[in-house]
Structure formats: C-alpha cells, structure tokens
Specification:
This protein is of the alpha/beta class. The protein is built from 15 helices and 24 strands. The model has no long low-confidence stretch (mean pLDDT about 95).
Length: about 450
C-alpha cells in the first residue's frame, strides 16, 4: 500500500490542475487515470474539435479567394488529413500534460480507481491499494443520448465517434443546437456535408442571451446549414445504410433521412465503477452533491468538474480543482460564482458570454442599462472581412457590469477581459478609463463601455 496526502481520480483539466496545485502546496500527490491524460478536453473534446475548426476555417477562406485577391482554382478537400491532424494535436497535448505532472513530482498511476472507503482507492487492474487523507474525484462526464435511443457508434454516434471519422457522410442530422452540435455542424458543412440541426428549444444556443441566439441562428442559416427549432426527436431507426429520424413539429410528425446522426444533447457524469453507492455519497440527478468548498457528503472526499453538474466546462473544472487543493491545505477561498465563468462557442460565428442574460437580470427585478455595440463600423473587422455581429453589455442601475454577450469575429479571445470586469464588479465609468489599442476588434467592446458611461464616440 502506497500512502499519499492527496489522491486525484481522473486526469482531465480539473484533475491534473488539482494535482499540480496540491504539489505546489507541498502535498505528496498521486493521480489515477484509466485512459488518456488531459481527459475529454484534450483528447475527445475541446482541443481536437478546435483543430478541426481551424482546418474548416482555412477551407472557408480558400473559397473567398476573389475577396482576398487570389484564385487557387478547384480545391480538393481531404477530411482524413484534417482528422489526422486533430489526433496528432490531441496526442501532443496528452504528452504535454504527462510531462507537466512528472515535472511537478506527481505520481501517475494508470488504471480504473475505485473507492473502497473514504481514505483508500483500489486500482482494479492491479489490485493495488492507495491511501490518502484526502481524495478528489475528477472523472468528468460522458456523452448522453435521448431516452430510448442508443448510441451504437456507427450510424448513431456521439462526439467521440464523430472525432474518429476519417470520411464524412453526404448527409448528417445533428440532434442538439448547443456548442457541441454547432461546432460539428460548422466543420462538416464547410467540408461539404448537408447538415441539419434539430433543437427542442425555441432557439439555438438556448442558454445564451436571446438576441445572441437569434443572431447565431441567422448566421447558420445564411451559411447553408438547415436549422429546425421547436422540434422533438421521437425515434431513430436504421434503414440499410441510412437512419430515419421521426420528429414532432408544430405542423405534425415528420420523418427525416440521413446517413448519420450525431447526438449532441449534453453529457452525463462518469461515475460508474467509482464505488460511490457503497460509501453512501449524496447525489442529485446523478451528479455528486458538493458544497462551496468542493466537499462531498463523505468526509475527506471532494468532487470537481462535470461530476458536480455545476457548469460543464474545462475551465470550471480547473478552477474547482485549485479550490479543492487549497481547501485541503486549510486556505479560505471565496465562493466560486458560476455565472461569472465565461462561456464560448466556436462555429460559423463565434459566441462568448459572461454573467447574466438580459432575461435573467430582468427576472431578478433589477433596473438595468443595455447597450449593443456592432462590429459593422469596426476598422479591424472591416479589414479582415468579418464585420458582422455585435457585443451586448448589461449594467445595473449603479453602472456595474453584470453581463457581457458577444457574437462576432474572435470574440472568444476577448471574453476574458469582460469576465475580469464582471467578476470584479467594475462600473462602466471605471472601465471607460482603460485605453484600448487601435485598430483592434476589442474596440467594439470599448465603444460599448463608453456608451454605458454616457460618451460613446463612434456609435
């Protein structure tokens, strides 16, 4: 039996971040991982999808040769090459995480970890027992499907199988218009697929501000992607080499036929085999219940990331991992405000947001100011031929920023600054004192700030 101060089960963004922070705090630390270091994010999510999106962006630019003054003739696309590059990038990131952990002195233990009590973890493949006074669970989530529909991995696939495709189907239906669904829709459409996106809610990106969602849907439709909202999938049926999708719409029942169906309806916690039932650990809707300090109902055990059902994002897990390690060290941390964690969507047009939507603010009965700053007049946006979309800023009666919602070119790179202002409760008048460089896309955000402060120049 090996003794540690801290054992982390799961090597994704939350797990490896917690391990590094634990070592920084002087703890003897082990990380248990049954598959790939870096977790879903590095191997089957964030990183490989962004790699494919970059390939698809290049394809999109090549089709705009006339605008940029070149003609490369007929373009031959090779999706298998793009997929291979995405896997190479994923493998590189996994090796980087391994080097990071080893460099920090974290013991990496391969295998399925199961809790045998609140101080021990058994490695199922070897039978080895690890002991620690503190255990952090960080096993993440896995793709889920709709009730009664099985992800069989060939015709009806999850995002994981989608990333393994080396040849794209002619037609594909994507069930779910959240970030995962819209990102795959973008890649596949730009590589020549006929893509239909089905969403049960009244709009795409249903968790975003309504104006942002409407703008996103407009761009998807303009690009040539078929989007159908207020549609509920009743059943999927394989017919030969195709899939029949039965749907309920406002006009009645319909059947759509496609070569493949991607289920992009979210994730479910990956808790199988952890031994939680025997420990009597409290859960809600399958997610592990935690307090603001990441503690579970079982003494000495913490949980972070997608297991907790808070906000299923890699950077959420990382933030929770740091808090868990610091709580174990006896540090006092301010509560994590989940609504102030930025959210990003990479697709036909980028979406990024932080804080409250306009609907949420009004439901809380707050008096607010709302400003929209378009990219249309922004010099940099015009120069790069991407001057569509806008930035929406919401401030309360005191001028304090409570929500920022962006849709447009490279907004995912700008939302961090907005998140800083929202998290620090900065007012528009204070933020207006910051000078932004010219010419940059970020000036659209500056113009919105100036408008809230009462002295917009270019709007």
């Amino acid at each position: 039996m090996r003794d540690y101060d801290v054992i982390i089960v799961g090597g994704g963004p939350g797990g490896y971040t917690a391990a590094v922070r634990a070592r920084q705090l002087g703890f003897k630390t082990a990380l248990v991982e049954k598959e790939n270091l870096g977790g879903t994010c590095a191997n089957w999510g964030c990183i490989p999808t962004k790699t494919l999106l970059k390939n698809a962006e290049v394809v999109h630019l090549l089709h705009q040769g006339k605008t940029f003054g070149f003609n490369c003739g007929e373009i031959t696309l090779n999706y298998a090459s793009a997929q291979q590059r995405s896997r190479q990038v994923a493998r590189r990131q996994e090796k980087r995480v391994e080097a990071l952990l080893k460099g920090r002195g974290v013991d990496i233990i391969r295998g399925q970890g199961e809790l045998t009590n609140n101080e021990t973890v058994e490695i199922k493949s070897s039978g080895e027992i690890l002991k620690a006074r503190s255990i952090i669970l960080a096993t993440g989530g896995k793709p889920r499907s709709l009730a009664g529909i099985k992800l069989e991995g060939d015709k009806i696939i999850s995002s994981r199988e989608a990333l393994q495709l080396i040849e794209l189907p002619a037609t594909v239906v994507i069930v779910g218009a959240g970030p995962i669904g819209l990102e795959f829709a973008t890649v596949w459409h730009r590589y020549g697929c006929r893509v239909t996106v089905l969403e049960a809610m009244p709009c795409v990106l249903p968790l975003e501000d309504e104006e942002i969602s409407r703008e996103a849907e407009s761009h998807l439709t303009k690009a040539g992607i078929t989007v159908r909202t207020n549609v509920r999938v009743q059943s999927l049926k394989k017919i030969g080499d195709a899939v029949e999708i039965a749907i309920d719409t406002a006009g009645g029942q319909e059947v759509i036929v496609a070569d493949k169906v991607l289920m992009a309806v979210g994730t479910t916690p990956a808790i199988d085999g952890l031994g939680l039932e025997a420990l009597g650990m409290a859960t809600e809707r399958g997610y592990i219940t935690i307090g603001v300090d990441m503690r579970t109902s079982v003494s000495g055990i913490y949980a972070i990331g997608d297991l907790t059902g808070k906000l299923p994002l890699a950077h959420t897990a990382s933030a929770q991992g740091i808090i868990a390690a610091e709580i174990i060290a006896g540090k006092i941390n301010p509560p994590l405000i989940y609504e102030n964690i930025p959210r990003c969507v990479f697709g036909v047009i980028e979406v990024a947001s932080v804080g409250l939507t306009e609907r949420q603010v009004r439901e809380r009965g707050l008096t607010i100011q709302v400003v929209k700053s378009p990219f249309l007049p922004n010099g940099k946006a015009v120069a790069i031929h991407e001057n569509t979309g806008f930035i929406k800023l919401i401030a309360d009666a005191s001028g304090r920023l409570v929500g920022v919602h962006m849709i447009g070119p490279h907004v995912t790179e700008m939302i961090g600054a907005a998140a800083t202002l929202v998290s620090l409760s900065i007012t528009a008048k204070q933020a207006a004192q910051v000078i932004y460089p010219h010419p940059t896309l970020s000036e659209a955000f500056m113009e919105g700030i100036h408008a809230l402060a009462g002295h917009a120049i270019h709007l």
